[in-house]
Batch of 2 targets.
Target 1
Amino acid sequence: MLKKLLLAVAGTLATMTFAFAQVDVNKADQAALDSVKGIGPAKSKAILEERGKGEFKDWSDFEKRVKGIGGKNAVKLSEAGLQVNGKARDGAAAKTPETKPAGAKSADMKSAETKSAEAKKDVVKK
């Protein structure tokens, strides 16, 4: 039981770290590209096919060669952690960790607490 718990915690931490990592289109594999919010399997495949013809020189080259990537989409992808040759796209907001006031809880945390409380009530009723 303890091993399963430790494995679950380790997996969660690894996933969280991977989700916030910067991903360079000229170095990433399909799984890494898929991890960027806004890129799915079809788009990552298209990126890899175009990269097979030669590395992307810059964001402009990336936008021209990959169908469906325009200026607005490129900014969003850059903000989500995508890079071309180690550089974010001009106009993209710098990605910084969210900071919240002490004691503030995210909607996910509140939802989890609500579910936990409901589960406890179910156990008590039984």
Target 2
Amino acid sequence: MIRILACCCLLVASFWAAAAATAPAELKLLDEHPVAGMVGGNLSGLALCGGTLMAVSDRDDDRLYRLDTRETLWQATAEPFVAPAPPATDLSWRIRLLSWVAGFVRGGWLDLEGITCDAAGNRYLLSEAYISVLRVDPAGHAEWLELPDYLLAQAQARKLLLAFNALYEGLAIDPQGERLWLAAERQQRGLLRVQWQGDRWQCHGRCVLLSESKRQLPPPILGKTSWQADFSDLVFFSGKLFTLERAAHLVCRRDAGTGRAERCWSYADTAMAEPRRYAEFNGAEALWIDADGAWVGVDNNENRRNDGEDRPIVWHFAVPDGGWGARL
């Protein structure tokens, strides 16, 4: 019996030693910026559009925000738009009812969870409640993309988009505005892709690149064993996809054609520093990646940190050693 226990202890120790040896490198924090002026708070998406950092809130259906980044305190200025009636969806009546109730109670009927831009200056906003994408052109005209009818069916066949508040959570587009990726948040999490072909959006081959239900080891500082993996935002940069994985405090580089993870970096040391901790829910919801680093936006859900800060926060991290394309 003693030998069995000793063997088990050795196996556990070996497992944790191997996990520590392959632990993701920690991103280096350069700056931290509170964001003022977002009417509904709840920063849920970031994107650099024509040299200007833009943001959306999942509480505001009629505006996106331009961020003045010249000072430590970033000031948000609203850029209004009028969204047409959202398209009908084939989501279950239960999910649609719960989304309606959530919008009524907290505000934000559309539940905007992401923003991205193409080279022409079009902004693409992701509605989780209606699993749809709103395109806002530089003049402020807004229209819903006509995504394939079969996209949802293929997603649900792969066990995606089946639970309320666990639908689309991030989107990315290529500079030409011809390839669009969508991230399904959790239960299960996944990555989907559609392409502009001729005169319509279609799936090139299969719609679903990745669908998985997995558990991840958390940062050791949290003292937990494992938890359900998720996606909370998505960026296309330099031919790769980058995912924000909120539960594990990771930014991961992925193959844009398969969704396969290639390398991850951690921001846990920044997020879990004692002054930055929250007593209640908060989460990293927004991501932007480029040659100048990574920007991670925190949706504080109107809660206050240990240091008293109660505004949305954006962290600016340095490009990791070796660059975003570095191998392990």
